[in-house]
Amino acid sequence: MKKIGIGLIGFGTVGAGVARTLIERKNLLSERAGFIPELVSVCDCDLKRPRPVSLPTGILTKDVKKVLENPQVQIVVELVGGIEPAGSFLLKALKNGKSVVTANKALLAEKGDRLFSAAEQSECQIGFEASVGGAIPIIKTLRESFVANNITSLYGILNGTTNFILTRMAEERLSLTKALKIAQDAGFAERDPSLDLSGTDSSHKLSVMATLITGKFFPASNIPTEGISGITPEDLQYAAELGYGVKLLSILKISPSPSPLPLRERVWGEESVSLATYPALIPNRHILSSVRDVYNAIFLTGDLVGESLLFGKGAGMNPTASSVISDIIGIGKNILGGTKPSPLFTGPGRKLQLETDFESRYYFRFSALDQPGVFARIAEILGKHNISIASCIQKEEKPKKAVPVVVLTHTAKESAVKAAISVIDRLPVIKSKTVLLRLAFDG
Amino acid sequence: MKKIGIGLIGFGTVGAGVARTLIERKNLLSERAGFIPELVSVCDCDLKRPRPVSLPTGILTKDVKKVLENPQVQIVVELVGGIEPAGSFLLKALKNGKSVVTANKALLAEKGDRLFSAAEQSECQIGFEASVGGAIPIIKTLRESFVANNITSLYGILNGTTNFILTRMAEERLSLTKALKIAQDAGFAERDPSLDLSGTDSSHKLSVMATLITGKFFPASNIPTEGISGITPEDLQYAAELGYGVKLLSILKISPSPSPLPLRERVWGEESVSLATYPALIPNRHILSSVRDVYNAIFLTGDLVGESLLFGKGAGMNPTASSVISDIIGIGKNILGGTKPSPLFTGPGRKLQLETDFESRYYFRFSALDQPGVFARIAEILGKHNISIASCIQKEEKPKKAVPVVVLTHTAKESAVKAAISVIDRLPVIKSKTVLLRLAFDG
Known about the structure:
The structure is a homodimer of 443-residue chains.
Chain A: E1 3-9, H1 13-24, H2 26-33, E2 36-43, E3 60-61, H3 65-68, E4 75-78, H4 86-95, E5 99-102, H5 105-122, E6 126-127, H6 138-145, E7 151-157, H7 160-172, H8 176-185, H9 194-197, H10 200-214, H11 233-241, E8 244-255, E9 272-283, E10 295-302, E11 306-313, H12 317-337, E12 353-354, E13 359-369, H13 374-384, E14 389-393, E15 402-409, E16 412-413, H14 414-424, E17 430-439
Parallel strand pairs in A: 1-2, 1-4, 2-3, 4-5, 5-6, 9-12, 9-17
Antiparallel strand pairs in A: 7-8, 7-10, 8-9, 10-11, 13-15, 13-16, 13-17, 14-15
Helix pairs in contact in A: 1-12, 4-5, 5-10, 7-8, 13-14
């Protein structure tokens, strides 16, 4: 049986999971792959830390050249994370004719265009299944299973930490701080959770999928991104009363959609794509509202397959290692068969524009003085901006004090909503910044 | 760009969808595949029926040899359905050195062993993504994405018609007959719905996945199968009150599970597999209970990935065509690259036994005379069979008449339950056959 040499850079949690699986499941993997995926070199700056696997003697090194310039290494697995030096390692590997596998969403979301074109130039392959949704096979599904489809929309719960926090806040009425503390104590939230809470990590993953779906590079920095820091248990409570759950969603929508010509080639020039990450209200009946705790899920619509959902763990040593190994086996087979990598998932001559003024239904929570005429004033301003009210909750009565007034709107333009809220927030009867959330899958 | 010749046998609904996609999306598919998948011959016994696609002149034929013996055809797509002549067509195609793609679950579930060994002998490939769950990419996920995993359990909602019927019965309190009529009028239930209602269609699909997961052929005829014919709106109502939805589930469980050695090679000799299809109560909180109407879903656990779910349309022209095309592109790439097909998803020297006496929690609905001592008598018989009662509902009071008594049990053995119920059903105070359902994901 032929061998494919694997070099690993980054021997942390996921790296150890990959090494352990390659070593302890060598027979099983070889039988299933039709070749032996052999770990020949592992590089990390920390040689001493205890890990849950024993490497063969002599393969652990601090010298990255022993991976990048090792003639035995055909596939370089990068699990360092961050932009640099990870990006240089990958470019160097590709330049040296080695295919690469990475879980590095931040790098792909910021420098993906350089990496993809380097891979194309060197005729090497690049695997990144583990960069989005841990164990969820979304990359293979988009590139291979749904190869005949035009994807028209995608809604992802892409960050386990924020989904855990929102679940605990909704189900146990915890504050965000308390729920975050539980996640940190359990070891799955970072000490510095800002990439998660701000929605940036989710937008990194959305960027990777957007590139795959459209064939055009949309760096995460161009994606409008809101995190969950402004959400209170009170908002989750109102949402529940109205029949909704709140999730941090990353959204891609291609317009016009669905295509009026479902089976013909699309007229690409007429399209635009909107991309955004924000916390959204999802009707309880929608399957995405059943995605609880640290789980991730991606709900997408293709013009042939219709609505689909992939659900699973978004992170962790073994789930992530599973996706890395799947890429290793797929790329190894292609190397041995001389098969070229699939091109990026793209349409012929597609010219998509990024649309930043998307439409949605909205949830507002105003803090308004409880006095006559206040609601009429708010409604009047919304009406002037073409925003029409669908329903409203005002429970407490505290004459002359600020009380929460919750409003759900019909579909409105983001630009109109921002303009209206900025007027409303300057009214003397409004006592703090209005909370603004969007609705998904509803109208 | 190179061409791969496609021959199609069976030009019905799905066949027309495949032909239409290959013809109308030729450019898109070629760009994504790296070769041109060209439809060169289409065979059907009905040449006149109108279809939603125009074929190039001269390629439609009644003569199956024009596909099976056509030197231009490298991949034969079989969409005839049924055991014969579909099986002979596929064997002949493989013998002639052609790879095959099929959506024929009945054939795979009854003659899969012959087809798989014929494919192995001829070194040809066999694609069957469309045979399970329409657009759901379960076959590729099991073989490729989860290649490093040992799958420990799988729960599938694999039949759209029965899921639609159960959803309508539960949500609108319709009778089974009425809900079936709606499904037939809407065109997605067959005139003769017996394969669906009896659970046989679901067990066909379970057989295909069981073969893939265990590497051993388990024909559907060996799988204990119960359908939904015995379910009443009353049972769905009781289940809802107890916090459950009812779904027709196809189940695979490997025991012992989870493995005590998660990352070592498993000791295959010690394992058994239980397979069954039956209607089951699922807790409302479980994501599978959100799978409504004609949707299918497969919830599976791998020892690395943990819990995963794939959800989508289970049938229909375009979803099924999408999966067939995905197989065509995958196999075409392998043919051009000279890559060998992946072996079946198997463990080294795996010797699994089929376990037919599975364990579960149970739901019973007794029709018992409303008189003193009856419940005690039932409880006594259950107790003697080591079946312990977890909860119970008896609402109506109709002295001296039969009333429904609903009991949920703790975990019990199927054999003990069958024995106990056969004793209970012979009691004079029991007025009709006890309804027996199982619980999933709960205890």
